[in-house]
Amino acid sequence: MAFSDLLEQVGSTGRFQVLHVTLLSLPILMMASHNLLQNFVAAVPPHHCTPHANLSTSSMGAGDVLRVTVPLDQNGKPERCRRYAHPQWQLLSSNSSESLWEKDMEETETQSCEDGWYYDMTEMSSTIITEWDLVCDQRALKQMSQTTYMGGVLVGAVIFGGLSDRFGRRVLLLISNLMMAVGGTCTAFSTSFTMFCIFRVCCGMALSGLVLNSFSLIVEWIPTRVRTVVGTGTGYCYTTGQLILAGVAYCIRDWRWLTLAVSLPFYVSFLYSWWFLESARWLVLSKKPEQAVKNLKTVARINGRRAEADKINLEMLQESMKKEMACSKGSYSAIDLVRTSTMRTITVCLCVVWFSTSFAYYGLSMDLQKFGVSIYLIQVIFGAVDIPAKILVTISMSTLGRRPSQCGALVLAGVMILINLLVPYDLQMLRTSLAVIGKGCLAASFNCCYLYSGELYPTVIRQNGMGWVSMMARFGAMVAPMVLLLGEDTPWLPGFIYGGAPILSGIFAFFLPETLSQPLPDTIQDVDDRGFGWKKAKRLPEKEDLATKDPSCVLLKESA
């Protein structure tokens, strides 16, 4: 008897599994709220220098005050970071010409905003930008805050990944939920930008812990035949979370209350996480078979199989886990990812694909204000496009193959982003449509990445491989916000980089072997024997593809 047979005996799709998966999926709804929170808490409102402190404005209108104190930029709008060194009263004269007003910045002495800034708070009551004046010379700090958050996600993946294998999934899930709740609460009450960034790093680390341990607990308590369905469902939970974020942010315009609102639900998930049962697989591999037997009996009783619960004993469990225990004794490491030429090619190409997908995805998703429409509306559209994108790429992967689907999604995304650079800023509808198509293609690329990567790596190092390429994706998410800073001097450069990266990685993806209808490789030798043949292999009935055999493909796509 294998462990899967033992799981069927206690009930593999009963009440326990339904409740278990549902409760583990609920926090995923709020993960997008933290990943994309920056779009709303760090929105930059229209602003300009505050008038001179010693200027009497009681008898002047707001327009007149602005005219005599703040010059105009090249677009005819008030300069954001400069003001006149002295009020230019002559500009109020009816004899002053428009040409004089247009040239006044070049001809008149100006200074920085020494008395602070005035912010137009029509759309929001407060953001971290207005709280700590992260504009002009300090504008780079806005992107830095998102980079530090993504750095926390990267560090959390390394720390929580190792700790969960040592101390168990349930304990680390509890810690992650509490860390996210407390970290988010402390972020909301931060009194300085430094404190804000520190607690955002904590939230990023907690998010990695939630992702890793939630999905480990999900796949280790459900049968192989439903893992694809469950994985797709949990992926759509993240998509739904993007829509929820837009609604919550629309209702709550203060950054502190918004941060608190998306963090409080994790207190609830922390409380009910005490109910979760530790993975029986992990317990056996960690030499705790007695507790594993107890957990299996509990599952059987919840599923209404009390008679089967009485039959389970220590000997039956150890017999069913013989294969897993033997595999756990293998000595494989990350070095095996580049040990042979075939493995080196696969690893390098996948690293480029994962990095650029995440890089361009967050580059588009984290700069919603540039589209010139409501950031709440564009967030809804960006979230909704993931639904048809994932459906289309799933059909494409099953008919055309993994490689053309991966290449096509990346190249099309890059082309859409580059075309957008040529569209005049006034054509907002066209610009937004192209960006939405590009974002949908990147979401499809993420969907393809997980399945394709899991099928390319052999069983003995699949987890090492998936961990490595996921780390590259997080690194891409860290770098993405900083590229936006290049647009200060060269507005078209960030878009060119965001568009060029997917096209380049699409070329790299072309050199990966096709895996549609091919058996999963179990060893590195299997990968070398398969090589890089361009033709599709015939279906081998005795083996299954990754979608029905290996749990490593059932992960949260966008949280990478």
TrEMBL record:
Recall the GO molecular function terms of this protein's record: transmembrane transporter activity
Q: Where in the cell is it found?
A: Basal cell membrane
- Membrane-traversing stretches: 147-164, 171-192, 198-222, 229-249, 255-277, 345-364, 376-395, 407-427, 433-453, 465-486, 492-512
Where does the Major facilitator superfamily (MFS) profile domain start and stop, copy by copy?
A: 90-517
Principal place of residence: membrane
Which superkingdom?
Eukaryota
Q: Which Pfam families match?
A: Sugar_tr
The terms describing its cellular component in GO are: basal plasma membrane
* Keyword annotations from UniProtKB, A to Z: Membrane, Transmembrane, Transmembrane helix
Q: How does it sit in the membrane?
A: Multi-pass membrane protein
Describe the family membership recorded for this protein in Swiss-Prot or TrEMBL.
Belongs to the major facilitator (TC 2.A.1) superfamily. Organic cation transporter (TC 2.A.1.19) family.
- Tell me the protein's name: Solute carrier family 22 member 6
Q: Which organism is it from?
A: Labeo rohita
